[in-house]
Design brief:
Length: 390
Amino acid sequence: MDNDIMQRTITSLLFGLILTANLSAKVGVKKITDGFNRPVWAGVPKINKKQMWVIEQHGVITVVDMETGAKSVLLDIHEKVSREGNEEGLLGLAFSPDFAKSGRFYVNYVDKDKQHHTCISRFTVKDGKVDAAAEEVVLRYVQDFQNHNGGWIEFGPDNMLYIGNGDGGSGNDPNQRAQNLGSLLGKVLRIDVSPQKGYQVPKDNPFVKTKDALPEIWCFGVRNPWRCSFDKKTGDFWIGDVGQNNWEEIDAIPHKKAFGANFGWRLREGDVATPANGVGGDKPKDNVEPVYVYNHGNGPSEGVSVTGGYVYRGPIAELGGRYIFGDYQNPRIWSFELKGGKASDFVDHTEQLQPQGGKIKQIASFAEDPEGNLFIVDHSGPIYQVVDVK
């Protein structure tokens, strides 16, 4: 066994031994809503903090009154959304920074065109209703295969719209997209959607003046960023990047340092060299190493498919400043503090964060409201809030 891999394995086992010793007994979950068909995203607009928006993967957005539990369908675009591939669908949503005034929001979905495009579309809600026919497709690009679509979108601390793209799919990035600045795949994009129509490329994007590079690219070298986030307090950028055969990874970087950052895929899986189709396995120039990796398995510190989360900035003091994330297929929930650029004080919250008499089955996403409260989106239907149970 390679010495580095042996050390990581030993570290992982040690984490598993100390996880239960570090558990706080003061947090739990309460069910907010249930009965959804493959929910993949939830969010709460600043204009109404008691209203939760929920995305169902087949193409429906439902609004839930978190006090009464009442539901109403806000937008149904299932006729446009491809579910041919298991990872395809309506995958992400972002409220415009001026949502309270403009009513504008953006979605990320894969369309039913023969080639299957990712569509970043703008809609407007007015008087509690959305005219689906008034959709404006702001950005559209072809996916190579039916997996690794990414799907995350969010407005950053600079009010630009960020878009997380997978490498196009299949396995091992066969078309070499992630390191190719001439492709939008395997990248995080940054665009300005403040114009009334369309978008602009921000003048300070890192590759605006780079020959043959696409100017929308903000950073690159990701495989399938399944849920990214910005720290509400610091603006730091976090990625949960789904691995290939062995390693899942969490990346974190200050917002200002992420301009042009290279997270290594396909030359790296986690922090391990993985030469690609004759391309060397050396670290790329200015490679950004993960702050945490975990290997594949079903143990307490293992998993198969990472679900990125949030740095907790809500009312529960014990969780303050901790990055909370999980795994989709081995539905565990963990947290750590970032110290010296690496994970520290790793805690397994899985047993605590289970509904009474039940179990969270598939962690599709985490969600955050304007006050920093954290929610867990279970792909099997329910959505839970992390709460203080003192």
